[in-house]
Amino acid sequence: MKLIKIDLDHMNKQEWTREATRSVLAIGYFDGVHKGHQTVIKKAINEANVRGIEAAVMTFFPHPKEVLGNPEVPMRYLTPFDSKIERLKALGVDRIYAVRFTPSFSKLTPQQFVDDFIVSLQVEHVVAGFDFTYGVKGAGTMEQLGAYANERFTYSTIQKVTDEDEKISSTRIRQELEEGNVQKASFLLGYPYKVKGEVIHGDARGRLLGFPTANVSAADRYHIPKTGVYVVAFYVKGNKYNGMANVGYKPTFVDNLPEPSVEVNLFHFAEDIYGEIVEVEFLKWIRAEQKFNGIDEIKAQLTRDKETSLRWLEENIH
């Protein structure tokens, strides 16, 4: 798989067209690479196979809302850039065009976008969702793409992919995560929701309580699920372990933690993994985070949480 980064502000067209080859191109932002996105990308792969040419994806970074909306709080992603590239690669595409979304890129007319970012890349067929837009203020639509193409390429429009009569979307998946519905979010994604990060030193309170934890510092701006206690799977050094995680602000001990922490207590595990890059897979939300009155109360609740987690794992993981 070949990754080609394109930056309109620091490259001229000859630089990115130098890498071009005949392809079928799936276009979209693709945060999460969820089931709807997968439908678009698999259609492109199938079309490419029929034509005997490469299957390519064009995605963008950062999110247009970050560039045009200038949000006060930085956006969080289901799949930050590196994670998204891994997901796209796993689907079996041959190349990825990663286009930096900048103010100057946002000002391209629909025709300029088609000419410079589709035709110049030797694209023979485009696949995108029905609601994909392009060009300044999203003025270009899929219904208009044929006119802009002017018979230089063909295209397919993928209609709305739904679950329970509701569109599968990145926004919907974020809402499910914010409500703690990690099982539903994973179903809509088509794979378990995970956060990648590094195990860092914490305050060692878990060890004193008899429930040592791995403190995971997210590697990027992942969308962290609702605060509370979860059953999790934990991946480190190529191995998978089960455990429970607290996502939150540690109100018993801390008054003003700026970001939610992710602390994982692993079952049947006693290795030193400080500095390791790990993945936390959220399986089931079991209770809200709470403030305790003392050490004994905390230990009693953690014991109950572990029993709940082990019972859920026994009933649901085979």
Task: Please explain how this structure is put together.
With 318 residues, the protein is of the alpha/beta class. The protein folds into two domains: 2-167, Rossmann fold (3-Layer(aba) Sandwich), CATH 3.40.50.620; 192-316, Elongation Factor Tu (Ef-tu), domain 3 (Beta Barrel), CATH 2.40.30.30. The protein is 31% helix and 28% strand. The chain contains eleven helices and 14 strands. The protein has helices at 13-17, 35-51, 64-69, 81-91, 103-106, 110-117, 145-149, 170-178, 182-189, 205-209, 295-316; strands at residues 2-6, 23-27, 54-61, 95-100, 123-129, 154-158, 162-163, 166-167, 194-200, 214-218, 228-236, 239-248, 261-266, 277-287. The strands form three sheets. The protein has a six-stranded parallel beta sheet with strand order 1-4-3-2-5-6. Strands 9-10-13-12-11-14 form a six-stranded antiparallel β-barrel. The protein has a two-stranded antiparallel ribbon with strand order 7-8. Strand 7 (162-163) and strand 8 form a beta hairpin. The longest helix has 22 residues, at 295-316. The two termini are 34 Å apart. The mean pLDDT is 92. Catalyzes the phosphorylation of riboflavin to FMN followed by the adenylation of FMN to FAD. Residues 188-314 form the Riboflavin kinase domain. This is Riboflavin biosynthesis protein. InterPro entries: FAD_synthase, Riboflavin_kinase, Riboflavin_kinase_bac, Riboflavin_kinase_bac/euk, Riboflavin_kinase_dom_sf, Rossmann-like_a/b/a_fold. Its EC number is 2.7.1.26, 2.7.7.2.
